[in-house]
Amino acid sequence: MLTSARNRSRTTIACAALFAVYAGAAPFERRPDDYIGRARGFIRTFYPGLNGQLKPVITGNRLSETDEMSFFTIQLCDLEPKDTKGPAVCWCSDPALSVDFVFDWHTENKELVRLGSWGPAVDGRRHKFAEEMKKHAKWSEAQVVAALAAAGAKFGPDQKAEFLRALPIEELRPFVGGQLEVTSAVFFLGTSPDGESEKADPVWRVEANWHGAEGQEKRCLMLFDPFEGRIWSLLLLGGPETSQPEPAPAKR
Question: What is the DSSP string of the chain?
């Protein structure tokens, strides 16, 4: 009985999110502790064009000690029933985009300290390219770079200057609650499960120094997709829930 009640509660929260996250077209000017509103602003800013037919669902929420929801995942899903006679549902098994958000509720600015996104909307092209490169394990680096450009990547390893100019540093500032000073940007290819390097899964790894409003300094790690330059991972070292290992793909 208790499990059933909890499930109903989660469903209620998820359904309510359909209205709380995307209702209206309110501007981004929000309180730091308006985590859902800030998450909405992040998705609108960094994943544009996904709002039309898709609906948001909040999953895996976790309440902090202050009873504020600062740890949660938002999924963008097609919630229209496949059977037109059936009711719409508040979950989906194959979301177009899922984004984990972790905000630091201890601080005044409630900084976004960890973010991770996945799903075909953000990593579909990257994974498709990785699968294709597995068929060409003996290709040279030049051949891989040429194939990446032919696949439509805007920011290959030979386009570092263009990538740096396109980095959304100012756009990230309202979410991370401080200034970011980029210190390095390196193009990587992925690592296979056994640790052997493969010419696959391309990604830009960006390191930055974070400067807070009160003189604090932290290290920020970010990963970007080379096809559209979209951010899909952010880790502000020193905040809550940031003890996970740093991403370490194999450099090519």
Answer: -HHHHHHHHHHHHHHHHHHHTTSTT--S---TT-HHHHHHHHHHHHSTT-SSS-EEEEEEEEE-TTS-EEEEEEEEE--S-SSTTSPP-S--SS-SEEEEEEE-TTSSS--EEEEEEESHHHHHHHHHHHHHHGGGTT--HHHHHHHHHHTT-SS-GGGHHHHHHH--HHHHHHHHTEEEEEEEEEEE--B-TTS-B-S-S-EEEEEEEEEETTS-EEEEEEEE-TTT--EEEEEETTSTT--SPPP-PPB-
